[in-house]
Known about the structure:
Elements: E1 10-17, E2 30-35, E3 43-45, E4 51-53, E5 57-59, H1 69-73
Antiparallel strand pairs: 1-2, 1-5, 3-4
Amino acid sequence: MIIQDTMPATVLAVGRLMAGTAGESRRSAHLFDLHSGGSHPEFLHTRCGAAMPYDHLEWIPVGSGMPCERCLGLAGSFDQTRLPRPSRGV
């Protein structure tokens, strides 16, 4: 049984531009924070800040495609709290 209240408010998804909509150099895999709701905007924004048309995106499994280095660098910055480093006594 699926309980609707258990759905997270934001889901992390991996996507890229579909073949034929952009050159291969622009088809890297980006990270998207998708918000729950029935509608979708015309453009979705990636973690690196790029705006991509929703109807030109293909969703891909994690680990496939060439990753966007900027998105990859920001992968943990939104959903992890930073813990203080333990002191290194000298």
